[in-house]
Every structure is written in structure tokens, then in C-alpha cells.
UniProtKB/TrEMBL annotation, chains A, B, C, D:
It comes from the Bacteria. GO terms for biological process: L-arginine biosynthetic process; lysine biosynthetic process via aminoadipic acid. Keywords: Amino-acid biosynthesis, Cytoplasm, Lysine biosynthesis, NADP, Oxidoreductase. One of its GO terms (molecular function) is N-acetyl-gamma-glutamyl-phosphate reductase activity. Its EC number is 1.2.1.38. This is N-acetyl-gamma-glutamyl-phosphate reductase. The keyword Oxidoreductase applies.
Length: 349, 349, 349, 349
């Protein structure tokens, strides 16, 4: 039986990607998609790839009727205040904003600068990263989709922290390189093509909000990791490469790392370990992941076996947003986990 | 019952794209893919998007066993000499090279500079463009896949020539803009990134070989059109936009053109007419077609209604090569014409 | 003796380029630069390349004091109404807007949709393209800087029209490809990086305003040429390539064309004829012109010698705007024509 | 009196950039430029920006006559064996290869995998970074031009190490992002445009050869720093951004850092400190440095004042190669240090 799904806030990039995925999903039917500013227009006027794929039009959010699964792609800070309304509109809610990602209400004040309006609801939500929280997702009523750069950073590092091989006295430095679509569909001077094209520009050298998720999800036994997170913008529309520099307790060999990564991810449908001895594709590369839900992970050890460089690549709109949200829905609803997420990506691109 | 398919010359870009499409095709099984230089290697070492999608390895071409449908992606000039061998290896052959595209053997000498070794076989082949030759494709033994820039040019202009509205005393000027993947996987100075990046560079101002196909396919009642074809390389990996400047016998209005284009393409699964009054997506745009088999067509009339500018956009590796070849196979084998070609494309990208 | 110069409207891209050129010019001193929105700020906060090059700050336009040469980089339509004020502020005015480019006041209504407020002043202005109007520029009080795509189109075609070799019964089709900086520093959805990056998108298939200048400047003995002008946006920040398709009265050979082009441009400091038999740089290429005042021109004849494809490349902000304006000032003020314009451009870039 | 200069190995990218700079230099005359493979051809066939700027042709290296200053742009490993010949050909030699950058001959075996043929000459050479070795350069006979990524890393970090504020018990992680021109003019699969365009790809996660220079030049009192160096390739032709993560002995404030950086670089003509409170140009950005000799340096402190992120941007072919070499020549020959290096760079670009 097909489930009904709707998208709240469907005119942005994550909303468009959700629409693409859900229109092609074998188990669901998209019944509504909202946009306050575009209400009444065909969705393909905003998402031109969907021309001839759907005759859906945007509706105002007020007209949204109850569905089985509601995807919310509202801005950060705008979601939490209306969480009760969301729960009335969807039997299951998948929220792509940051508003229920953090377990500690105080963290919102520290990292986002606002006070959470419904801290009492946080325990009923799940951080929607299947590789770390699959079992909780299976029964969740409210799933909080992870942040894009956080997803790449966490997936690259979690096996190492869980295996206990990271030297706790040393910093882990994470440098994420990101394309322009992660900043959204809103027009700004920093996204003006003559200014944005061809840049290699620090976006957030320190204090990036996704640090909060990384600290939360990489903690082991309540001990927060010593991570330092920096984001640099580069010329690309989609794509994130998170390069993490890890100092190990004891020297390790590649075979140890294969064991650690295979141990955690061996059965994961959307993690690929990419580590070849040679060739131009020997490391993860975000551009070939455009449109896919993969997170490709590779690494390289320094000669002394004590510094490890981990590379994790994703498409920020897919595994970093809409794709991961659909994967979570698949798990929650008992569908095949890869349903609607089969696109293998393009090469060359 | 699943048909067996194989790809001869599978290490190039069109070969890789065929592999991607055929691995995801519900009606066929890829049994073999050849590459002389890469024999023995996993296909994903060359086509990294296929990692975890197939365990196929390249085999040497000599080892190719007979299949139901053989896709040949050998270089121009290298295919014709071995055509008999191809016909022994595949019950149906879909040839992506130029070697059987032209009906007139003399045209090979004029445009390609070589003499066709098997001119007697030309009548048994079909120019594999479904929109113009669907019925012949249904029964073809040997299908010649059209050239990439020719596909965009022909699809944009055919309705006008068939409708008889083009002024025969005036030239039709076609300017195709193209990305870098059309030149193939072979490394050259002109494809060296520091030289190729960011260019707006004439590739073939005159004398482009695809002119021969355009002249052939736009001819009506044996009368060759007065077309002039120029190709300019621009910064993109995939994508062609063919802009054609047409002078009309009589002034026309937009509604006349809608009628002409809908008349020919109204039922076509892979043609979309893109002509909006406003918006940044009001004309065809190749980038959103990456990975799709669409040809998007739009136009604009000059104020006096006598010059018509037609824009046709494709992904050169898809509708311009592998996608169109799979579409032809679908027609030939009685499959759903869109089987394996469902990807809607990405936005933004 | 150093002349004083000022820039009215100095926060845009042409204004910034003027500032770069004039700060490095040996014969002038930039005394003031205005910006209503940025008044009080250091110019390098808007034009970061000028950091450590000048301590100038933007001033409000009202504070502009009289200078020897006033460069006006105000928007189209905003300049004409204040022309008398401009003439009071500058002994010589170089206006980069379109407001005094056209000789025929009625043309403003046709192409720009507004009625010229001071048509009586048009005869006292000069179209500031040195290659066509050098003598008039020498004594001009008010110089109207040409449009960017018009500059490339006109410079590529003028020698042919003047030589009388163009078949008047046939259309000349001009297709200009352009980068994003020509659209200015104003933020819009069409310039939003995820939307603008990697495009091959028709900008103005018909009706582009620069058509008016092209028609005016290519007219011979009052006969307007039969030109058709289309602009396509491609991935680049700077750069225009105008590809023109010309049908000749009589077949010509390359040596005829060398004679025609050398005849008109042989002594021009900023025109280079680029036509090699081979090599990746055998035709004009805008990217290597970034920051230079060159217009590189090349051509290719069709096999029958009757269709000629002319390629003309410029940097839209230089020969297409600020550079050409400085060149005009140099002529007007009796400076070395290349003063301040010596930068040879970069390769690779 | 004009000095004579020559370029040995002038057909590569650094050679072309040297040529551009030296042709425009007021104190020198380029008398010869060699290229084995291009001998007899005009230099502008390889460096198209120099068309109409010089009538020089490449000569075979054997024909090189003695000059006042010889710039050598031969490949790494090919220079050292012929060092005596170089010293005979040039009264002063500026060598852009790596062959005399390292003080410790054993370092060549470790990092480059070959044994230095003339270790006894190393003491007579100078590491040609003016900001660190200006006095030695003034009298040097043989100047070894620094590596491109090393230049950005060293210039960004040297003030901190010299000021003694870096915690020696903690690692300094340097992540350099780089464009494609740094890999040179040699055609390879990794530089093939369809493969190279749009990448965010680890180039050398560990073991990059420039580590050797960084370790050498950041050492204080013989104590090597604890640096870890990674290079990632991104979409750009020119440009490097080195982002360094430093852990401080004691918390510092911005004013402390301004003092440290101004103390070392306050008088440097080619270092700019770029650190604004807001704006899209608040941090260093390599793209606006194209063609300039600047190294722009900025930083950001973590909230606790203990992690410092330093960003240093250069044009790899300028401050990272040819520009720094000309700067060294200027110092050595007593010219104005900025002679020939005045280009301020472009914006937008």
C-alpha cells in the first residue's frame, strides 16, 4: 500500500531534491508540496529537472493536509516553534532543519544563539543518521536529519572513535571543503557568481554550527572528542569532502584500518570504502557522487603510522540532506533501505 | 526473459555511460564488457561511479561471446572494417561510431577522409534517432547511433524543415556549444585542465564532420538544407546547446511554432518543449539534463517574426550517445521506450 | 603635468576596473570615487584587489568636485538625465553607460524603451571606439563608451563591411558568448552561483539592446547591415567571444582576408589577428585576455570560400568597458595610447 | 644599465610566467629563452598572452649564452646534475626547481628518493624566500626558489613559530588547497579536463615533498616543528590557500596576533594582512591574487583563544614560483623590490 508523503517548504534545494527522490520512490505518493512564495506555481518552474515528471503545484503551507510521512524543509529556527503542528500533520515527521538535532537544549544557545522553545520534546526525536542510529529510527515518531558537513565528518570518524584508537590528548582537525548549494537557494552577495566562482575561501574557520553535532555524535561514553572543525568553500555546486587529521594512540597499519572500517560499515548500503593503491580515483571524490546517497570513505596513513588522514565525500543535498532523509524514511517504514535511492552517479561529470 | 547485452570498447566515456544504463535496465543483463588496454581490471577502476554496483571486469575483445544485443563503442573508422565480426557477435548491433551513419558512401570521403570498406552494407543499417526513424529501428539489424552535436541540431530543426516553413534561399546557421567530454577519454593538450578550463574557444568554425549527418537528416524530398554548422567549446564536462538561426518563408507567430513542434514531438517521451515567458529556466539548459535522455527544445522569434532562434539542449553522453542508443534498443526489442532511462536529472547542479 | 580624474559610480565592476587602471596610470591622479551606498568605506572593501594600493574612500556623489576627466559608470537610463551636471563636473566626460551611444534618439525608444531627455546633446558626443572614431575622440568633450558585446561584434565585422565584401542579400548572424560579470555587481537569482555555474544558457536570443550599436556602427553610407544578434551565457566571469557568420559577395581566400584585416587594424595597438594553422591557441580565446585591453580577431573560411566565420574575443570589463574608456582618454588627452593598459594577460588562467 | 637575463626551460608554466614578468621589467632585457621541444618556434605559440609582446623564439638549451641572470625552470632532479653548467652560464642563477632548496642532503633521499649529486654546493645556495632570507639573497650566487605550497604554508606560520607562541606538544595541521597549474604543463590523465574539472580530490594526504621545506624553514633554533601537511586539489587553474591549524601555548587575543604578524611583515611589500570583521573579502582569497606576487594572510581564533586557524593565499605561479624568483632577483641586483611585479590583480575574476 502506497504511503502519502508531503513536503513542507518545497521550493529550496533540499526540498527539490526530496521531491525528485519521492516522485521516483516505489512505495510512496507525493500528495502535496508547500511554498509560501511560490504557491500556485508548477513545481517545475522552480525545479526545472521535474518538468514532464509531475503536474504538482506548490500550495500554501496552511493548506497542508495530514499525510503518513511529512518532510519538513523549513529554515533553522523556524521549525521548532511549530513542531506540534508538524506532528499533527504527519504520522511520521522527518525534519531537515537543525532544530532537533542536538540532545542538549543548552547547545542551541551556545551554537545557534537561541533558546529552544520545546526542550521537553527533544527526547522523543532521533538523530537521523542510519549508520549510527538505525534501531532508534525504526520506531521514531520524529527524525531530525543531520547537517551536511557534519554527516561527512561523523561518518568518516565514527569507526575510529568507537574502536578507541584515537589519541585523546591530541586534537582531531577536520577540514571540510564544500560547494555552493549547501548555502541554499537564497540569493546573497557571497553567492553572486562573479564573486563565488572559482573561490577557495574560508567560510567558517572556527565556530561552525555543525561542530555541535560532530561533538555529540562522536562522543563515546559521554566523553566529547577533541575535534576542531573548519569549512572552506570551493568551486562546486554539490559536494563535500571532509578531510580529517587524526592522531592515533598507537601506530596502526592499513589492515587494522580496513578491519575497523569494515567492521562498522561492511553491511552499510550507502558507505563505500575507497582506497586504491593507484589511479586517479584512489580516494573519495565528491563530484562522482552527485545525485547519489553514497558516502565514500578513504584514508592514508603517515609513514610512521601515527597520523591518519581520513577523507569522506558526499553530495550535500543527498547523503547530506534529502537522500539521508529518504533513507531514514525507508528504515522507519520498513521499505527496502535503498528504495528511491538507486541512482549510481555519473562519470565523467 | 532477460536479454544478454555486451559492450565492445567499454573503457571510454560512452562505454561507461552505456554500462551505467544497462546495469540498471530491467530487461537486460550485461554479460561482458571489453577493453584491450584495461582487460582484467574491474570496470569500476575506470568508471568509479560503478563501484559497488558491479563486479564485472573488462575482457579482451577477442573473448567476446555472442549476445542478443551488442553495443559497439569503438572509435570512428575502426568499426566499419570489422562490421561482419560485429554482426556475428550480436543478434542486434547498436554502433555508436560514425561509420554507418551516412547513407551516401561518398560522404565518408568528403567528411571523414576515408573510403568506406563495406558500402554495400549501408542500406541494411538505420540512423538510430527514434524521433525520425522509429519505425525503421523496430526491425533493424544494425543501428547507427547519431553524433552528439548532430542530435541537438537535427532535433531542434527537423520540425521546421518538415513543416516547410524555412526560407530555402537563406542560410540556417547552427552554433553548437559543447563541453569537454564529447572529445572522449583520450588525453590531449587541448584537454589539459589549465588549458581547457574556462574557455570559450572555437573548436570547428567550419567543416565539422557532424555537418554530414545534419545535411542528410534535414533533407526533405532529397533537397539538402542550406545549413552552416559551427562548434564552440565552453566550460562544462557534459552538455550541448545547439542554437540555430532560421529565416522563415513567412512571418510566424509563437502559436504556429507550438503547433509545429507539438505536432512532431507531442508524443515523444524524451523531447520537452521549454519556452516560458519568464524565469531563469525559460529556455533549454543543458546542465540540468546531465544523466538524462531528454532533448529540451525552445525558441524565440525576432520582433518581425522572420528570424527564429531555436535552442536545443542535450547531455552529449546520453541523448547524444549512450542514452539514445539504449532508447533505440528499447524500441527494437519491444521494451518500454523509457526503460533504464528514467533518471530525471539534478537541480541545482 | 598630472591630470585629475574621478569616477562617478565606482562600486560596480566597471568602476572597480577603472579604478585599477587609473591608479596605475602614469599621467593621471584619481582624486575621488563616488558611491552612494558605500560612501565612507575604503574602496578596497569592495574591490579587494586594491588593498594596499590606495587609501581612497568612496564619497557620496554630491561631494564630487570638478576634475579634468570624469568617468561616469552610472546605470543605463540614469546618466542622460544628469548629463549637464556631468559636464559641469568634468572638463572631459567619459560615460560608460548606453545613454549617448546611439545617434538616433528614436533608437532609444525602440531598443531601451525610454525617450531620450536631451536628444539635442547627442551630436556633441562621440561613440568611443578608437578603431572607428579615433579622430573624433581627439577633440571630444563627451565620449560614450561602447557596449561590451557590441565591441566584440563590431570590431570583428567592421573591416568586412568597410571593404564591401559582405553579401547584402544575406544575413550576418552574430552569436556572442559571455561570462557573468557583464551583468554587473547586482545580485539576482540568475547570478546565484548554484543556478549560474556551468550554464550554457540563452540570455537574449533576439532583441538584445546592443543590436542598436552594431547596426549603427556597421552601417556604410547610411545602409544598415542585415545583422542578427544573439547572446548566450556560459561559465566564465570575464570574457566575450563573438562568433559571426558572414556570407560573402564573392568567394575570398585567406590572403584577401589578411589584407582586409591588416589594412584596417595593422597599426592598432589593441587589435591582434589570431589565426594559426594549428595549435590550441590558433583562434581567439577570451580567457587569456582577462585584464587586458586586447581584442583578438580570427576567422575561418568554409571550403567554398563563401561563408566566413569571424571570431572576436575581449575581456568585457576591459576592451568592453573600462579599458576602452581609458584608451579613449589617452587619445583625447594626448597620452601614449597604451598608457595604463600594458598588462599582457595571463597564461594559463 | 640593463642586465641581460635568460630562461632555461621556458616552455612550461613557470617559464612562461617568468617571461611575462621579465619582458615587462624595467631593468632587464630577456635575451634568450630555451626549450628543447619547441626550439625555433615563437614563444607566443606556447604562451599566447605574449603575442605582439615579443618576437623571441625558443632556442635549444645548448645555444644558451652567458647572461647576467639565468633563471632555470628545469624539472626537479634534472637541475642538480648540471649545476656547474648553470653557474657558467649565469653570473647569478635563480633556480625554480627543488634541487637546492634543502640544506640537508639526506633530506633529498628521504623526500625525493634520489641522492644529491653535488651536496658540497648546497652551502653556497640560498632558499629564495625574501621574507625569511632577504639578507642572504642580497649576496647570493645561486638562489633556490621555494616550492609553491611550501611558500603559502611557511609565510602563514613563520611569525608564530618565531614568536614562540606555538604549543610544541601539539601538532600543526596544514591543509593546502590547490589549482591545476601547479602540476605543470605536462598532459596526464589526472589533468584531463573531464576528470579534473570540478574536483575536490586529495592529492597528497601525507608525504608531500614540500613538507621538507616547511620543516626546514619553520625550525627555530634547530628544533623542527611538529607539522603535518596535506594537499587537496580543487577547481581552479591558479591559486593556493593554505589553511593551518595551530594550537597555542597560551590563549591569545587578536591584538596579540596583529602585533606578531605586523612585527614580522609590517614592511614587507608583498604580504598583506587580510582580516576584516565582515564582508565576503574578510579572509584571504587566492583568486584575486592571480598574476600578482602577493601573499595574503589572515587568521581566526577559536572562542577559547587556543586554536588558531591561519589562512595564507598565493598565486602558485607568482609568489609560489616566478614572481618570488623575480622578487629575489630584484633584491640581489639592487633593483626596487617590486620592479616588474606591480600588477594588482583583478576583481572580479
Amino acid at each position: 500500500m502506497t504511503l502519502s508523503v508531503a513536503i513542507l517548504g518545497g521550493s529550496g534545494y533540499a526540498g527539490g531534491e526530496l521531491l525528485r527522490l519521492l516522485l521516483g520512490h516505489p512505495e510512496v505518493e507525493v500528495t502535496q508540496v508547500t511554498s509560501r512564495s511560490r504557491a500556485g506555481k508548477f513545481v517545475h518552474t522552480v525545479h526545472p529537472n521535474l518538468r514532464k515528471r509531475t503536474q504538482l503545484k506548490f500550495i500554501p503551507p496552511e493548506k497542508l493536509e495530514r499525510v503518513d510521512v511529512l518532510f519538513s524543509a523549513l529554515p533553522h529556527g523556524a521549525t521548532a516553534p511549530q513542531v506540534k503542528d508538524l506532528l499533527e500533520r504527519g504520522s511520521i515527521v522527518v525534519d531537515l532543519s537543525a532544530d532537533f538535532r542536538l540532545r542538549d537544549p543548552a547547545a542551541y544557545e551556545r551554537w545557534y544563539g537561541w533558546s529552544h522553545p520545546f526542550p521537553e520534546m527533544i527526547p522523543d526525536t532521533v538523530y537521523g543518521m542510519p549508520e549510527l542510529h538505525r534501531e532508534e529510527i525504526r520506531t521514531a515518531r520524529y527524525i531530525a536529519g543531520p547537517g551536511c558537513t557534519a554527516t561527512a565528518a561523523i561518518l568518516g570518524l565514527a569507526p575510529l572513535f568507537r574502536a578507541g584508537v584515537v589519541d585523546p590528548s591530541m586534537p582531531v582537525v577536520i577540514e571540510a571543503k564544500t560547494g555552493s548549494s549547501g548555502a541554499g537557494a537564497e540569493v546573497t552577495l557571497s553567492s553572486h557568481h562573479p564573486e563565488r566562482a572559482g573561490i577557495i575561501r574560508s567560510f567558517k574557520p572556527t565556530g561552525h554550527r555543525h561542530s555541535a553535532e560532530i561533538l555529540q555524535e562522536l562522543a563515546v561514553d559521554g566523553v566529547a572528542p577533541n575535534v576542531h572543525f573548519t569549512v572552506t568553500s570551493v568551486e562546486a555546486v554539490r559536494g563535500i569532502l571532509a578531510t580529517s587529521h587524526v592522531f592515533l594512540k598507537e601506530p596502526l597499519a592499513d589492515k587494522d584500518l580496513w578491519k575497523i572500517y569494515r567492521g562498522m560499515y561492511g553491511q552499510e548500503p550507502f558507505i563505500r570504502l575507497v582506497k586504491e593503491a593507484s589511479g586517479i580515483h584512489r580516494y573519495p571524490e565528491p563530484k562522482i557522487l552527485s545525485g547519489t546517497n553514497y558516502c565514500d570513505i578513504g584514508w592514508e596513513l603517515d609513514a610512521d603510522g601515527k597520523r591518519l588522514v581520513v577523507m569522506a565525500a558526499i553530495d550535500n543535498l543527498m547523503k547530506g540532506a534529502a537522500g539521508q532523509a529518504v533513507q531514514a524514511m525507508n528504515i522507519r517504514c520498513g521499505f527496502d533501505e535503498t528504495a528511491g535511492l538507486e541512482f549510481p552517479g555519473l562519470h565523467p561529470i
